Automatic annotation (TrEMBL):
It is found in: Secreted. Coiled coil: none annotated. This is 17858_t:CDS:1. Residues 2-199 form the VWFA domain.
Amino acid sequence: MEVDLCFVMDCTGSMGSHINAAKACILKVANHMEKLKPSVKIRFSFCGYRDHCDAANRLQIFPFTESYVHFERDLSTVSATGGGDSPEDVLGGLNAAVNQMSWRNEARIIFHIGDYPPHGSRYKNNDDSYPNGDPYGLTAESVLGEMKSKNIIYFFGKITHFTNEMVNIFRSIIGEFPVYDLNTVDTGLLVNKFFEATCSVIKTAISLIE
């Protein structure tokens, strides 16, 4: 079986430790899955998002690759920077992952990691430069609907309670999905949590296809 796994990650200033954890565990995940189930081949991709104030640096996209070394090299260029108010361009990041990636395999996964929700008062944001929602007109309904139509399975890595309402809204649109606890300041523990969550994501997606 071949798996398409896209990491969608908030890359603003508050996400430094989690980006470093992602970098640290990518090859570990690849090697583990190869030993656990050699018949599984994984293509990795990455879509980092920041916020609308970050202009050209708002999105950082690396297409699918089967080369783990290549992917690790690309990921090494990602840094935690930017961001304005508390909400981020979550919908822009997810939309880019859904529509700008070359999805081809039966098992299709988005593993989204973030600490704040999208723009819009519906997410109960207290500090929001765009209380009416995404300035480009994206909505959770349109983005997640497109994701579902392409048979992409969504998983979320939770870091703070600020994403609770986002999770509720997303579940009302696409149904239940696993949420993984990635909230820790312990670097070693975070790498282990990230590793275990990513392996679980892959195995869960495969079990749904088989």
